[in-house]
Amino acid sequence: xLNAAKLNAIAGIALALTCASAxxxxxxxxxxxxxxxxxxxxxxxxxxxxxxxxEQGDWSGFDVDFCRSVAGAIFDDRSKVAFVPxxxxxxxxxxxxxxxxxLSRNSTWTLEREAGLGLAFAxxxxxxxxxxxxxxxxxxxxxxxLDRAKVCVESGTTSQxxxxxxxxxxxxxxxxxxxxxxxxxxxxxxxxxxxxxTRDQSALYAERLKLPQPGAAVILPDVVxxxxxxxxxxxxxxxxxTLVKWVNFALVNAEELGVSSLxxxxxxxxxxxxxxxxxxxxxxxxxxxxLDDAWALHAVRATGNxxxxxxxxxxxxxxxxxxxxxxxxxxxxxxLYAPPIR
Length: 342
Description:
Elements: H1 4-26, H2 29-36, E1 39-43, E2 52-53, E3 59-60, H3 62-75, E4 81-85, H4 91-96, E5 102-103, H5 111-116, E6 119-121, E7 126-128, E8 130-135, E9 149-154, H6 158-169, E10 174-179, H7 182-191, E11 196-200, H8 201-208, E12 217-219, E13 227-229, E14 232-234, H9 238-257, H10 264-267, H11 273-278, H12 285-289, H13 295-303, H14 306-313
Parallel strand pairs: 1-4, 1-5, 9-10, 9-11
Antiparallel strand pairs: 2-3, 6-14, 7-13, 8-11, 8-12
Organism: Microvirga terrae
Keywords: Signal, Transport
Family: Belongs to the bacterial solute-binding protein 3 family.
C-alpha cells in the first residue's frame, strides 16, 4: 500500500506531466503568436456591429472585440491584433491554411464545419437565428406570406441551405437570387432584383442601416433556424482551442461575477474566492493555458466583460438596437452559461 505522501507525490508528477503536455501543444499556435508578437484574426469584410472598419482603418465590433480579448489574455495588450477581412466563401480555408490563427467572423457552428472541415468551434458567443427583411410596401407581416417571392441570399452560407429548408417545409416556392458576397446581395435587394433579403437576424439589423431609408424596410419576426455563432480554430491544436474557449468563458464569467473593465484593478483586492481565482491570485490556472495567471483579468481589461462588449456593439443603445434576448445570462432568463474557473 502507498502512503498518503507517496500518493500525493505521484499525483504531483501526473499534474506536471499534464501541464507539460499542454505546454507542448501550446507551442503550436500560441508559441507562433507569441513569437510573431501579434494575433492574426479573421473577421468579416464589413458588418456593422460585428466587424467594421472606419475611414481611418480602425476596426470595431462584437467579433473584433473578441479578437482583442484573446490578444489581451496573451499579451495584456489589446492592440496586438492584425485583422484579416475574409469573405464567407474563403473564411474556413483561410483558417485551415494558417493565414489566420483564429476566425471570429459571425460563423454558424455546424457538424459539417467541424467534422468535415477539421475545425473546432470554441463555444457560442452569440445565439442567433435566420430571418427575412422586406420593404414595408410589400405589405407582409410573416415569412409564411412569402410564397413565390424573389429572395436574395449569400451563396456558400447556412442561410442558403436554411432558405431551401424553410420553403420546402412550408410547401412554398421561391425564386433564389444567390450572390457571392453579402454586399452584392444587399445591393440586389436595394435595386429591386429581389423583394426579400435573408440572413441571420443580427446581420439584417446591420444591413438595414446601409439602406438609403432604413425605416422603409422591416425585419419580419419569424426566426427559421438556429444560428449559434462563435470563434473557430483549427482542430489540430487542442491547447490553442482550449485557450480561445476559456477566453470566451472568462468574458461570461466576468459579467456574472461583476468584474468589468471599470473595476478590473479592484478585483485583485477582492477577498471572494471565485474573484480571486478569476484575477489569478489563486489556483495557478494561467500556467495550464501557457499564459500569465491574470490572463482572464487581462482579457476583461482589454474589452470589458460580455455585457460591455454586447451593449457597446449590438445592444439597445447602440446603432443596431438589438435586445439581448437569448444572449442574456442564464440567471437573467437567457442561455449564456460558462463553466467556472477553478
